[in-house]
Design goal:
mainly alpha; Tetracycline Repressor, domain 2
Amino acid sequence: MVRPSKKQQIPNLQEAIKETAWKQIAEFGAPALSLRAIARELKITAPAIYNYFPRRDDLVTALIVDAYTSLGDSQKSILEGMSNKDAATRFSALGIAYRDWAVTHPQRYQLIFGTPIPNYDAPEDTTTPAAAWALLPLIETIQALYDEGSLLVEKLAKPSAQLKSMLEAWYQFTGKTAMTEVLYVAYVVWSRVHGLMMLELGGQLPSFFTDPGEIFRREIATMVNQYIGE
């Protein structure tokens, strides 16, 4: 009788490999990720993993894309339930949902936004579109504010030609169109919430900040007041 192969014994081996990789990252950090260690954990041979991920970097790239996609999907799902709400309300909801996702998936957040993995170079043609997808709900919401005349662009400093060029080059990966000022505000908004999340997830907040969510929510409200008019 022919025995089933190790690969056949694990339903959806590719997903099992990635889930085991996330467990490794949670326990030892992304730089320690090892295909052979994953094989040992799953009780399969290393070549079985190589069929899906020939190199460790290929697995890292797949995890990064999955993380960006998960973030983008969570942002998109928030908007789908708020189609009858004004853009300012949707903007606030996106901010709160961003933190909720990061707190729920800290390893995923750290992998895509944290310290780069030594000797790993992300393939831009694969990871940049995924990153753009993650920010697309925010960009589209800010574009809606711009279209309705609620985005306070007159308070922004005049952008240089170089800044315009960089923003346009960044956004081309989405295949969409958006005003330069919309892209700028989206990037700055992201940088502000990102800073708060990195402090929180990295355990860098003072001990007396017992509810980081309160700080986060006030920052979202502050940005509403700063960027959105009546």
